[in-house]
Design goal:
296 residues, alpha/beta, six-stranded mixed beta sheet, 40% helix, 12% strand
Amino acid sequence: GFVGCNPPPPRLGSGLTRRQAREPIVTAETEPLASLAWLVEAGADEAMSDAPANRFAVAKLAPPKPALSVELPKGSQARREIAPTEGDPIGSAINLARAAQSLAELKAALESFDGCGLKRTATNTVFADGNPASRILFIGEAPGRDEDKQGQPFVGRAGKLLDKMLAAIHLDRSRAYITNVINWRPPDNRDPSPEEAAMCLPFLRRHIELVNPEVMILLGAVAMRHVVGKTDGIMKSRGRWIEYNVSGRMVPVMPTLHPAYLLRQPAHKKLAWRDLQAVEQKIASLHLLERMAAEG
């Protein structure tokens, strides 16, 4: 601040006599009050701090935070160091997800991520279930109470209905792969906020890339909105094939009704059945079950 600065010495030629020039210079050391009065007259009427500050000193930079250590599963090459993105959880999620080279690494990265507040209220991280080699990907919304307890998607009443829906088109969890947009249960099963979804989407997008599906089924409005960006309602969009870009390849996507919704509105099961029939036809046209059987 200004306190502690010395006033300039008087100079000849500015209206001073030689006698005045020979008088002792008043400084903060010789006369504090006089020095203060001089500063006030100069316009310095406010002290910025109790001690003088050297504005020319080089500021000491805080040491960088250590990188996040993601413990990879057994069989992975080495522990991968991911640089944290200070104050940007979405940026951190993007970095963690992008670094994952396998589903096991992606799961480890997701479990190490603490940027989403939902994780603090959840019991488990819910990653996925089923067979990723099937190339048939179902994406739901978010875990419920039973899923949160067991750490697997679709294990409650809605999960049992989904199993019946799969069986109706000759699928089961060994011939399909299931995940969610959100990996932690929202309190009271509320819809996830846009911010919460944004923190999970980098992991979901990388999840889709690693699975590399041939066909995708979106269960409910939340999945449709966050995966393909459609906001015109699930009842209007269901039953119509759309496409999703997976690493430069367009993949057919079928939005349909969520099993939990069908439990509340059983009359609409006939609509979901029509959607599933279209999915079955698509799977047949792509020979996915035959290819899965041939691959063992």
